[in-house]
């Protein structure tokens, strides 16, 4: 709210003039059409809009983390939640496919390790999950979390979440887990192209992060990941001195 109250109409217009220009835009056409006719219409409707100045590059970089960071928030809630997160590279890194597969093994759905071990088997958590935003243009976070069952403490959840990460470092994932994670990623990738609109959206997303041709390389990169790759990146990217811990404590 502080930002909304502070911003002025002049600043909003300046932002629009800087970023909403043809040289900073992507136009995708998908469907049953004749390309020359569509290109003619694109030129007719958009060709008269002048180029703008090149938007300034984003040069700010977060400095390397040199120690664990912790935050505890007390808000009105029914149950505690524990989050763990580490800084990781984006999809430009050769390790991005392995991070995507590792995230799925650990927290991708109800067959994942976190859900199976903490929710189903031991009933320590009401819910558990996580994410790695593979398609991010900027470096991002690899995170996972769990919501405590009534009677369970955040300390217990944090210890169990960390134990799952340490297990990934010390033991290779099973062939079954690896294949299931790859199948899950590929199925989601295929199913999200179930409409013309979604196909166009996915092409635009890949064009934004480096080029639409990357779309065809996504699944082969995922399929090439091995159990040894997962163990290697778990050891490389998730040391204790670079983790970030966020804890929500319920307040009546």
Question: Which secondary structure elements does this structure contain, and how are they paired or packed?
Answer:
Elements: H1 2-6, H2 9-19, H3 35-46, E1 69-76, E2 81-88, H4 96-107, H5 113-121, E3 125-131, E4 140-148, H6 154-170, H7 175-191, H8 196-209, H9 214-223, H10 227-237, E5 243-251
Parallel strand pairs: 1-5
Antiparallel strand pairs: 2-4, 2-5, 3-4
Can you put this structure into words, describing what you see?
With 252 residues, this protein is an alpha+beta fold. It folds into two domains: 2-46, no CATH class; 69-251, Metalloenzyme, LuxS/M16 peptidase-like (Cytochrome Bc1 Complex, Chain A, domain 1, 2-Layer Sandwich). The chain is 47% helix and 16% strand. It has ten helices and five strands. The chain has helices at 2-6, 9-19, 35-46, 96-107, 113-121, 154-170, 175-191, 196-209, 214-223, 227-237, and strands at 69-76, 81-88, 125-131, 140-148, 243-251. A hairpin with an 8-residue loop joins strand 3 and strand 4 (140-148). It starts with a helix and ends with a strand. The mean pLDDT is 94.
